[in-house]
């Protein structure tokens, strides 16, 4: 059986993943490109005695060397030399999509075009002369409908045939016109004579093109200064003639080529000035209405997520409660078996505490999948882009940040809608600053304890606001330092609205939710166990507990445990923040999940068993000042994202380094800010 490697390339949203899923079915493997965090999907399919290995490359509009995605795609095509490159084109938006195709033609890749979305193209009245267009592009063209599975066989046939022919020189390729061709020839000849290695590897014409475009990556590979001298002269000459950068002129020529090819081969059978898409766009991207509509839609999404999600959530909570009780029942009543405690208080409570969010997550991803697949998300990004750009982020970053007010875990997963890696990493880093629902439990404990009813609302609002402001500042700072550069020329494309297919929505929703269950589930399981161990061992000698009631015994045991000792140990360090060892212990516990802060403090103050928040508030009032109360909230807001968040950051960035950077960075930030607030506050009062 002959093995064929086929690379799938295409613009974002052209239906690449749909085709990939369709062709490879369940024989998929998701990995990672070496050294970077961009996902690498591979899948196999057998067709007419050939085993075809498909690689789904990141979506890009172009193959310059500006972004990670572009570089990965370009390297794969040039260096791994797949037998066939399949360019997935949105046939309903052909001129823009073919730009990538022209660059593949320049690379002389063995090409097949999948004219996807051909159903939409037809509906829009586009009629292609595929035979003629195929001649112009010198590649096979197969119309497909990725969402319905049309064109699969024909596409596979074309791939096998193209692979069989192998790489062959193109007859006409792309012509850039007199002056440019002259300079290209000059550079190409010096490349051929001086840079044999580059020419062999990439093709001399392509190297010449990239040199004239002043492509950093290729320029950096040139060994001989004479070559660069020739290039500099050519570039200077071209700039003089065109009064513009050669890179831009070449891009113009490519568009010219496309527009020429399309004019010849595509007819628009129906004249439609205003289609429905334009009308909707006029409203939802309106300068005045756009933002309120977006906010309203988002509000609806959250409202639905949290109200509809509540019932199944209560159900799940009940199930975990029953499970805990059932496991507990395996031991005689009153038994203090450590295994029982490990299973019930550690594993079941820990995993249950997270899994109960599954309904919320499913609903949220359902809503996002719908907004994405209909095409609205692109508009939302467009509306938010102006604001988000100011802090160096993409309009789409707004959505995960909003989700962060619910829970950082799905929010970090939602950053997958961001195509650009730096934007994505920056967004992930600042998401924990969005005050999540779990932190609300801390605020609800502290605020009534220290503030009069009159002040409660404003204080809460202030805490949230501080989080948002810090996120904005941190995002900007990260973009200027760690994630700097990469101002990819960005065209906000507004794809036409589409009716989403239930299948694709179900797949999108399920893929994300499954990841949540699987990865977060396993990591959380063992972290819960570890925290349980730390809070349970070592146990004080039984005689020390003699005569104490259950609450006090618990309190003594906690103080004696590793967590209690660590709390004591860090006390000197957190003293300048106004915290004592009790708060320290609770803060350490809150790393498992922010809610744990409240229950840990309850144990420390032995108000745990009556489960009475007011009793705990009285203790707090007696022991601390309102300033300390505020500092607790401030520290919990900024510091140490919970372990589920850390695990999710690790998973999504595929690097412990980024997860550690986030964890340590936020903790240090929290320490510094709380320190300043407490010291200044103490000085003033
Ligand atoms: P990718 O970004 O290139 O991977 O694109 P996706 O595969 O995620 O597809 C984007 C959207 O287009 C999804 O909602 C698909 O269901 C939809 N889609 C994909 N192919 C077609 C098609 O041929 N026709 C129509 N109408 N929709 C499609
Ligand atoms: Mg995709």
Oligomer: single chain
User: Which bin fits the share of residues in helices?
Assistant: 55-70%
Number of domains: 3
C-alpha Rg (nearest Å) = 30 Å
Low-pLDDT segments: 487-492
Helical region count?
Answer: 32
Mean pLDDT: 82
Name every ligand kind in the structure.
guanosine-5'-diphosphate, magnesium ion
- Widest β-sheet, arrangement of strands: 2-3-4-1-5-6-8
- Note the overall shape: elongated
Gap between N and C termini: 82 Å
Structural class: alpha/beta
- Amount of beta strand: 5-15%
Write up what this structure looks like.
The chain is an alpha/beta fold and 685 residues long. It folds into three domains: 2-165, Rossmann fold; 178-268, Orthogonal Bundle (Helix Hairpins); 296-485 and 506-525 and 590-684, no CATH class. Helices cover 65% and strands 8% of the residues. The strands form two sheets. It has a seven-stranded mixed beta sheet, with helices on both faces. α14 runs antiparallel to α15 (338-355) and α23 crosses α31. The structure holds guanosine-5'-diphosphate (GDP) and magnesium ion. The site of guanosine-5'-diphosphate has 21 residues, from α1 and α4.
